[in-house]
């Protein structure tokens, strides 16, 4: 069954349980001391997990983990204040902080996590490049806000379910949490990592806790359920993100060019030890192209996302770009590393690497779709490519994305037998041969990306 249907089904169940509890009003602990200790312990644990995620992100230079961890900390420290101000324990009377800190926790977390939330936002890259400094500021601001709420407990408005700003803020909290959950679902679809599912459920539960603000006069059971969802959500999201990183540690060296720019790209590839081994064999066989396949994979996935491609299809493109030269492990080393011009016979051997690549990948049934793109990455729209001489629409956009990114990187990078050409020269070649050598749409996506990134001389 499609994992998105399962995820949406779980959301409906959560909402249904919330409604059922609100209507039936089952018995629940109502002693202030019980609520105090439950909330304080749960939210303190969430804050520690969130800080651990920030630490992991900083240690491995993964900016998205840093930003998301900072957001989860903000979503934990304010509910921690809510727990401390439970009436009848440290504060004898209800305060504005008690309700405001509970309501503002999720919106504050989403505000901090915004650079990771809006993936199409033009300023996202600027924030992620400064993730460590941004995180320090965000963590400090959240902590100071928490202290201010404790020092001035009656200086903030008390959110009411019928107030427009309460409804708007809660709606934004739910929508933003679901957007983060949907992003993790996409990571699961492409990378097949169970940790991504855990993170998706965590963000979903975090958003579901905001349903309490749509209930007039919540009873004790609803309050406990909201706290349980909130704490479980932060813990599951943080744990899922950390475990997702841990399962990807083995390929950090191979994928360094991708990981250093955007960890989500590497995670979406769903790298396995077998794929890691393939990449290592490619670069060991032909050291002159070290880094080539990872740069091509990164660029191909960025172009695919720009073209609205996602899910399994994007993963297939990324893996095909990463493994497009796997067939070269069957090419004699003296041909691959020959500094002089190849003879016709030697070039004929080189031209067989797409076929050999497909044969190697077809040995794993899960990589067969990848093998078909690998076989087609030297086909041309005008029919002059190889190995099958495909033409026209038979040269698909997916083949074209692997082809244009492979060609771009080969043109502009230095090789042992020649210097790389300028970006302007390479761009002119793509403009001239769009629709003949490469699919026009693939070239358009490449040029749009280069223009946006300013990658021209």
Describe the structure concisely for a colleague.
The protein is an all-alpha fold. The chain has helices spanning 3-24, 32-59, 63-84, 96-117, 124-129, 131-151, 164-191, 194-208, 220-246, 256-259, 263-269, 273-285, 292-306, 311-322, 333-336, 344-350, 353-361, 368-375, 397-412, 423-433, 440-453.
Cα-to-Cα separation, first versus last residue: 49 Å
Query: What percent strand?
Result: under 5%
Order of helices and strands: HHHHHHHHHHHHHHHHHHHHH
- Average pLDDT rating: 82
By DSSP, the count of extended strands is: 0
Unreliably modeled segments? 248-261
Would you tell me the structural class of the helices and strands?
Answer: mainly alpha
With helices defined by DSSP (H or I, 4 residues minimum), what is the helix count?
21
Q: What gross morphology would you assign?
A: elongated
Main sheet summary = none
3D structure, described in words:
The chain is mostly helical. The protein has helices spanning 3-24, 32-59, 63-84, 96-117, 124-129, 131-151, 164-191, 194-208, 220-246, 256-259, 263-269, 273-285, 292-306, 311-322, 333-336, 344-350, 353-361, 368-375, 397-412, 423-433, 440-453. It starts with a helix and ends with a helix.
Q: What structural keywords apply?
A:
457 residues, 68% helix, single chain, mainly alpha
């Amino acid at each position: 069954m499609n994992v998105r249907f399962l995820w949406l089904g779980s959301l409906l169940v959560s909402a249904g349980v919330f409604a059922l509890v609100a209507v039936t009003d089952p018995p629940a602990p109502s002693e202030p001391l019980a609520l105090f200790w439950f909330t304080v312990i749960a939210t303190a644990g969430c804050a520690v997990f969130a800080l651990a995620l920030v630490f992991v992100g900083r240690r491995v230079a993964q900016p998205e983990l840093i930003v998301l961890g900072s957001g989860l900390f903000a979503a934990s420290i304010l509910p921690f204040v809510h727990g401390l101000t439970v009436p009848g324990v440290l504060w004898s009377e209800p305060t504005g902080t008690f309700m405001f800190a509970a309501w503002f926790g999720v919106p504050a977390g989403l505000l901090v996590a915004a650079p990771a939330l809006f993936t199409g936002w033009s300023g996202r890259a600027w924030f992620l490049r400064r993730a460590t400094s941004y995180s320090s500021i965000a963590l400090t601001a959240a902590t100071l806000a928490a202290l201010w709420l404790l020092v001035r407990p009656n200086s903030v408005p008390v959110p009411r379910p019928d107030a427009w700003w309460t409804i708007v803020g809660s709606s934004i909290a739910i929508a933003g949490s679901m957007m983060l959950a949907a992003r993790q679902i996409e990571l699961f679809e492409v990378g097949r990592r169970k940790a991504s599912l855990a993170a998706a459920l965590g963000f979903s539960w975090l958003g579901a806790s905001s349903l309490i603000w749509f209930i007039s006069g919540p009873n004790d059971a609803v309050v406990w359920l909201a706290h349980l969802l909130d704490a479980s959500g932060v813990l599951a999201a943080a744990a899922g993100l950390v475990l997702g990183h841990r399962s990807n540690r083995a390929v950090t060296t191979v994928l360094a060019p991708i990981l250093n720019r955007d960890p989500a790209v590497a995670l979406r590839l769903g790298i396995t030890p077998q794929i890691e081994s393939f990449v290592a064999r490619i670069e060991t066989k032909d050291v002159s192209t070290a880094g080539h396949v990872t740069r091509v994979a990164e660029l191909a996935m960025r172009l695919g996302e720009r073209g609205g491609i996602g899910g399994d299809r994007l993963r297939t493109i990324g893996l095909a770009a990463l493994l497009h030269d796997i067939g070269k492990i069957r090419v004699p080393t003296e041909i691959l590393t020959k500094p002089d011009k190849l003879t016709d016979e030697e070039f004929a051997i080189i031209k067989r690497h797409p076929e050999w690549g497909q044969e190697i990948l077809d040995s794993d049934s899960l990589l067969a779709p990848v093998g078909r793109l690998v076989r087609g990455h030297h086909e041309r729209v005008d029919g002059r490519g190889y190995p099958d001489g495909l033409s026209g629409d038979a040269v698909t956009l997916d083949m074209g994305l692997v082809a244009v990114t492979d060609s771009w990187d080969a043109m502009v990078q230095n090789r042992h037998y020649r210097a790389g050409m300028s970006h302007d020269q390479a761009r002119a070649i793509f403009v001239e041969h769009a629709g003949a050598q490469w699919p026009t749409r693939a070239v358009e996506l490449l040029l749009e990306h280069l223009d946006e990134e300013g990658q021209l001389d």
